[in-house]
Structures are given as C-alpha cells and as structure tokens.
Amino acid sequence: MINHIHIQNFVLIEDIETDIFDGLNVFTGETGAGKSVVIEAVSLALGSRADSSCIRTGTDKATVEIIGDLDGEEIVLHRELNRQGKNVCKLNGEAVTLTRLNELSHRMADIHGQYDSQTLLDPASHIDLLDSYRPDLVAGPKEAVAADFKAYSESKARLVALLNLRKKTARDLDFYKFESSEIARASLTPGEDAELEQKISMMKNSGRIFEALSTASSSLSSDGAGLDLISRARGALESVSSVSDELSDLLEKLTGIYYDLEDVSSAIGGLTESLSFSEDDLDEAISRLSLIDSLKRKYAMDIEGILSYKDELDQKISSVENFDSQEAALKKDLIEKRNTLLNSCSVLTAKRQEAASELEVRILEELKELNFNDTDLKIQITPMEQPQENGIDNVEILISTNKGEPLRPLYRIASGGEISRIMLAFRDVISAYDAVPTVIFDEIDTGISGYTASVVARKLRSIAKDRQVICITHLPQIAAAGDHNFSIIKESGEHSASTRMEYLSDEQKVNEIARLISGSQITENSLRSARELIEQSR
Question: In this structure, what DSSP letter does residue 60 have?
Fold first, then answer.
C-alpha cells in the first residue's frame, strides 16, 4: 500500500508532498491541471521508463519518492532523473537496478489506464488475461508445456543441424576422404620430426663426431690412458685405505669416478658403432622429414594436431556414412517430443477451458452490475496450427451487448465507455487472485456518464473495500464515492506554470463535486446535487 508521495520538478509539478490513505482516493481537477502527471510520476517511482523530457523546465533533475507497506514492512522507493540522462533508483536508501525496482513495485501497485483498455481490444492479450484469472489452475501446466516445448525445440534443432550438415558434408566427403587417406599413408608418430632432425644432424656431422668419439675412447681406454691411470691410483690408495677414514673416503670417491668413466667409455663405444650408415639412410631420413614438414605446412599444425585432425575427419566421414540411421533416430525422438508436448498442451487447454467457464460467469455478473443488462460474453479457445511455448491455444473474448445480436470480437462492437467498464469488470474479478495492495485507475471513466457513472463509482468502492484504490476522474459520481478526495490545481505565474495538490475537507469535497456538476460557476443547486451524490454513494 502507498502511504506517502513526494514529487519534485516533474513536468509541471514543482513540489507535491501528500499522504495517501486506505479505501478510495479520488483525484480531480480541471482539464490540463496535471492529474495524469501525478500518476505518471508515481509510475516512474514504481519502475516505469522515462527520459529527461519529464524534468521540469529550468531545473536539473526530477525526483519521486514513495513510502509504503509491503508484506508488513515499510519500504521507501526513490527515483531520480537528471539532464545528463543519469537514472538513480533506490530501495530503502540503497541503490538498486531498475529491473529490481520494477519487480518489487509490481507486488506493491497495479496501474490501469486507457492503455489497458486498448490492450483489451487486442486479442493477443486475451490469453494472458485468462491465465491471470486462475494462476493456481494453469501455472503448473504452463510450466510443463514450456519445458516440453524447450525439449521439442532442441530436438528439432538437432535434426535440422544434421540435415544441414548432411548437405554440406555430402559435397565435402571426397575431400575428407582424401585428406584422411593422405595423413594415414604418412604413418605419423608424435615426436618423430624432432627425432629425425637429430638423426640427420648426426649423419651429416658423422665424420667429426666419429673422430671426436675415437679420440675420447682412446683417451679413456688405451694403455696408460685415463682408466688405466685411475685404476693404478685406486690400487695405491687401496693399500693404505685402512689406515684412516680420510684415505678410505678418497678411495671410495675415486672408485666412483672410475666406474662413471667406465660407463662413459662404454657409451662412447656404442655410439661409435651406431654411426655406421649409408648415404641411402641419410637420403631416406631427409625425405621422411621433408614429407612431415610438408604436411605440417599444409595443415598448419604439428604432428599431434594433424593426427587429431584426422580423427575429426574420420568422425565426419563416419557421420556422413551413418546419416540415415542418425536421421531416423532423431526423427523418432522428435515425434516422441512432439507427442509429449501435445499431451501437455491438452492438459493446459483443459485447465484454460475450466478457467474460461468460471471467468465467463463471473464477468457476466460484474457486467450486469455495471449496467450491461442484455450482454452475453464468451471466452473462445481454439487450437493454433503449431504448439508454442505458451501452449496451442488461441484465446479471444467475444461479446454481444444487445439482445439477439451474435457474439463478435470486442474491437468490433465495444465503445470507449463500454471497454472501460469491461476492463473494470475484469479488474474486479481478477483482483481476487492477486495480492497487489494498491490499484490505480487513470481515467477509467472515459466515455461514460449518468447512471453508468454511478454504477462504476459503486464498483470502485467495492474494490476499495479490500485494497487501496487511487482513481483519477472527471465525473462527479465517482468523485462523490471517494473516501479521500484530492484536488489537482494548475497555477500560472508570470514566467511559468506549476501544479499543486490539495487534500479536500468535507466542505471542499462538496464544492469540488459541485464544480464538476455545473462547471466553474457553483450554484446552490449544484451544491445540493453534490451533497445528494455523496449521500447516495454511501
């Protein structure tokens, strides 16, 4: 519920601050005084979009603040716009996103105006209207349909992707096979190129390497050379090693050196033997490396990448050659998913038909109270050609406002005043299924007068018994029904105009209703009529 409104520098409003109360709050004022501007400002605080054009001329920013109750707790909604386009949203003094503000405000207040009446004329909106009547009835089936539609859409996308791939890969199949065969013939081994480079380097430098190895081997193994000398040294130390630990340690170290050199000598011998090769061996190694390098350049990959690419090619070839079985499996899955979706849609349709039957009865009752005495109404549900995320139902409200006339779409027969009353009827019925504590009507009385206006006034008072109602009106009958009345007044100064808001006392309320009855000239008759209207509204 909204308890307090504070508006600064918004369009014509310089500074308005007022409390709002339980029951029916009615705003009246001269045409052009800014009644709807107040609602626009409230809508801004509740999360609607706006731009700098709403900032009062000559000022830098517009601010709107609403204090209210939600779920038993006080909340403060604050919205600020400046000339630079900066948009500030706050909840209880802390910055929040516009989306968050909007989500919260939808639980706090519901605004209805001429736009809502226009949406009632759009058959595309009727399905949402029906679903909002009994969310407890349709919410579960709607979630099931949405989930099944997602599964069906994903299955369909997989089949389409396969068929598209089939067209493309059928053209590329020969190319895939050629590249796969080329790589297979190469019999590549990871790391092979590095080994070949080292082998070729050894072959090309074999003369120098052989000479170096021979010298090293001779220096280590020939008589009087390295190993022989170290062996003699070992023998000498061994004869005295028992004398001290220090001599023993020296022997141990020298022995280790001897065996290490012996291993080196053996390795040199083995490497020397491996240097035995022919020119053909060198040519073969160079040719092999050249083949590998050409493949690496062609595919712009190393050996591991080329082998991985071949696996991909083989998978594509396999996919193409197994398209028929894959297509059959995907088509079977698609049919199963579609049948599941259609079953879910049938459940949802049944729930909507149940809700529609109830809603028809309730709306007709409301319409009779709103002076539609010879009206018939039907909520028509027909199947669409294909299921959608929201089901398979086309929903349209058909109405006949005269006895004997056939049911027709709303937009063909309903006048502006009739649409306003029909919207009010829907609002009254649907409100029983939502928990929004505040309902705002912006000129819901468009196109009505006389007795019908009195009926609408009683309906607004009925809605206001269970929740707070804020209503802008130009009709005395509705103004008379208000529990709390406010006057919106535009004052023109020397250089600018501004709008102010005044809470009306009982006497001021009578005068305001008299003005609505007779115009600017208030008479004794209009005052008497105003008091009568107030009395009748009770």
Answer: S
Nearest to 74 by CA among 1, 144, 124: 1
Strands in 71-105 per DSSP E:
73-82, 87-91, 94-95
Count Cβ atoms below 10 Å from residue 230 Cβ, excluding itself. 18
Distance CA 250, CA 246 (A): 6
For residue 448, the one-letter residue type is I
* Helix 126-133 × helix 323-369 angle, to 10°: 70
Torsion of CA 414, 416, 417, 418, to 10 degrees: 20
Cα–Cα distance list, 107 to 6, 110, 158, 423, 437 (Å) = 20, 8, 40, 20, 8
Q: Are 55 and 83 in contact (CB under 8 A)?
A: yes
Q: Rounded distance, CA 430 to CA 470, Å? A: 17
Q: Are 355 and 430 in contact (CB under 8 A)?
A: no
Place of tokens 């105006």: 113
> Is the model more confident about 313 or about 267?
313
Q: Are 477 and 454 in contact (CB under 8 A)?
A: yes
Per-residue pLDDT at 168 exceeds 60: yes
Count the alpha carbons within 13 Å of 434 in the hemisphere toward its beta carbon: 21
Distance CA 177, CA 161 (A): 22
User: How many CA atoms are closer than 13 Å to the CA of 509, on its beta-carbon side?
Assistant: 22
Q: What is the mean pLDDT of residues 195-206?
A: 76
Amino acid at 33: A
256: CB partners within 8 A, 6+ apart:
none
What's the rounded Cα separation, in Å, for the pair 508 and 530?
11
Asked if 345 contacts 145 with a C-beta cutoff of 8 angstroms, the reply is yes
What's CA 474's distance to the chain center, in Å? 41
Residue 26 has pLDDT above 90, yes or no: yes
pTM over 0.90: no
